[in-house]
Design a protein that fits this description.
heterodimer; A: 264 residues; mainly alpha; 0% strand; B: 329 residues; alpha/beta; Rossmann fold; Alpha-Beta Plaits; 2 domains; six-stranded mixed β-sheet; four-stranded antiparallel β-sheet; 11 helices
Chain lengths: 264, 329
């Protein structure tokens, strides 16, 4: 069997193990979905009037604010589900079964890549779920073409891949599930300091550069542009840069950590 | 089942090719030296026990030999492959059951087995067949559809070994296979290990139970403080230390007194009319003792040979000898 066939076959086996876990124990994923859905409902139905007035300069109605926050919440959903990835990976690493995998003649990277693919699939499914809730409460894309929908889907997948690799690294360096959950907090907090809920130019001047260039804001602005026809500008390239950068960083970080001697 | 590649077993000319060998194996964690240059040679088809107290380095040795962690120094070969340069070839020949159960608790016992079959690249049908066979052999059929996390300690350990056997490994590492098991499960496990050996598998097991090493192992290495304190068969080890003696018992008090007076280097037990003569239990020493008794005209009513058991050996070898002796005032 060639090295590539071996890698694909073992990765596929590990992916099926990962999806089996997710299917058997869906509570973790569902818990993590709760945050973005709750935030969506709270911001729209409770803070909605004020927020709409804030972004629309006074004349806006609530549906305009729904349109504004949905792209941010879709990306936040990815941040939230990848916290789950960090936790489940840290949990898994503490299991004896991983030690067994390490003593078997399997493709080494398959343990991680199987996990990553499984997590990306879960992230995408979560995004679809939150998107459906958004549509149910009145979100509509204004003028997105099929190509723009595909690009939006691609962007979400790429973003999920990048954050998942980082989350796997976090899971690997965390001694247990609690630590992993704490260490992965930035993945769920960063969207709060982005253009997800309010425009960056409404923030204090000293904070704007932080909000503008962190990974979430360019991704949110790009997604807005694709779905709602707003200006994308340099945000498209910035997003791709962030995604590729984080993926490469997470990949090398995780594989280096995993190929060394395991923690005792 | 496909047989694993193990070049050493094909050299029919040699009666017992080496399955596992280590020369000068060293490992430290920071300042703490865990393995301080140990040498091992395990012939194929034999059972080798690493015996030692907690913290002696047994688990570290197994982790290194099973490619889980790397050694600081030493030349090691498993199944004819060098550990440092060909770890994947080593992995293809071995099976490992660690001290802490290496099962996936979130999925069922059967799914665990099928996972192993997939990772060994068995065709689907064969994977199912091997799974069914091993679940049956290890008495896990009834629990097969339940999550492994719900299993008892003994069941988990059985599933663990069953998973190890899926790839039909020729060399098996068992790290404290019976620790934490109740007596019935322990005897069960011994039966399982004997079964493996009768299939011609080489077994390296670690244990802190002398009885276990005595029961199962062809050769035993006593590991203490990162060094091998002694190595040999159980009987050889028992002969290593003093404590063996020949016991003479008399029924006639007069004969006892005469004998006690005639034999000077003896320990007396006046109550049971018995004398103990130090002896290693070898044939040569026994003959000289008998000759000596004959020439002294002593005839005991009962003669028994006592050899030290492994407990004596273990305590003699592993008790720290570096402590300064207290002076008697």
């Amino acid at each position: 069997m060639s090295a590539l066939t071996l890698a694909v076959r073992d990765t596929n086996t590990m992916l099926r193990r990962n999806l089996l876990h997710a299917r058997r124990y869906p509570s973790l994923t569902l818990n993590l979905l709760l945050t973005p859905v709750m935030l969506l409902l709270v911001f729209v139905y409770i803070f909605g009037d004020t927020m709409s007035a804030g972004i629309g300069g006074g004349g806006a109605d609530r549906s305009e604010y729904i349109a504004y926050i949905v792209p941010g919440l879709l990306l936040m959903t990815i941040g939230s589900t990848t916290v789950g990835t960090a936790v489940s990976f840290a949990n898994d690493m503490a299991e004896g079964i991983i030690a067994r995998f390490r003593t078997m003649a399997i493709h080494r990277g398959s343990v991680i890549t199987g996990h990553v693919i499984g997590s990306v699939l879960q992230s995408v499914m979560s995004v679809v779920f939150v998107g459906a809730v958004a549509v149910a409460i009145g979100f509509r894309s204004t003028d997105a073409t099929l190509l723009e929908w595909l690009a939006a889907f691609g962007l979400l997948t790429l973003f999920a891949l990048a954050l998942t690799w980082i989350a796997v690294g976090i899971g690997l360096v965390s001694p247990n599930a609690e630590a992993a959950s704490n260490n992965a907090m930035p993945l769920i907090l960063l969207p709060l300091f982005s253009s997800a809920f309010v425009p960056v130019d409404s923030m204090p001047g000293w904070f704007r550069p932080v909000a503008e260039y962190q990974p979430f804001t360019p991704a949110i602005e790009t997604l807005r542009g694709l779905l709602l026809g707003t200006e994308i500008g340099h945000n498209g390239w910035l997003t791709i840069g962030w995604c590729v950068g984080l993926t490469v960083l997470g990949y090398f970080w995780s594989t280096a950590k995993f190929s060394g001697d395991p923690k005792n | 089942m496909p047989s694993s590649v193990m070049p050493t077993s094909n050299e029919g000319a040699h009666p017992s090719p080496t399955a596992v060998s280590a020369i000068g194996l060293r490992k430290s964690y920071g300042d703490k030296v865990v393995l301080d240059g140990i040498d091992l040679r395990i012939p194929a088809g034999s059972v080798f026990a690493l015996l030692g107290p907690n913290g002696a380095g047994k688990t570290t040795a197994v982790k290194i030999l099973s490619t889980l962690i790397t050694a600081d120094a030493g030349e090691m070969q498993v199944a004819g492959h060098d550990l440092a340069t060909a770890p994947q070839a080593v992995r293809a020949a071995i099976g490992v059951t660690g001290q802490f159960s290496a099962v996936d608790g979130l999925i069922t016992g059967e799914e665990n087995m099928l996972l192993m079959a997939d990772l060994h690249h068995l065709p689907k049908g064969e994977g199912r067949r091997v799974t069914a066979e091993l679940l049956e052999r290890f008495d896990l059929v009834e629990a097969a559809k339940k999550p492994a996390s719900t299993y008892s300690g003994g069941m988990k350990r059985r599933l663990d070994i069953a998973m190890t056997l899926v790839g039909n490994p020729r060399i098996i590492f068992l790290d404290e296979p019976t620790t934490g098991l109740d007596p019935r499960s322990r005897h069960n496990m011994w039966g399982i290990i004997r079964g493996l050996v009768s299939d011609g598998v080489t077994v390296l097991l670690t244990t802190q139970y002398l009885e276990e090493a005595d029961e199962l192992a062809d050769r035993i290495a006593v590991l203490n403080d990162g060094k091998i304190a002694a190595e040999g068969s159980a009987d050889e080890l028992k002969r290593l230390i003093p404590g063996g003696h020949v016991r003479l018992r008399f029924t006639d008090p007069a004969a006892y007194q005469t004998a006690a007076a005639a034999l000077r280097e003896v320990t007396r037990d006046d109550e049971s009319l018995a004398l103990q003569i130090p002896s290693d239990g070898s044939q040569r020493e026994l003959r000289s003792i008998l000759d000596w008794l004959d020439s002294a005209g002593i005839e005991a009513d009962e003669l028994t040979v006592h050899t030290p058991d492994l407990d004596d050996v273990f305590f003699a070898l592993t008790s720290s000898t570096t402590q300064p002796k207290e002076t008697v005032r």
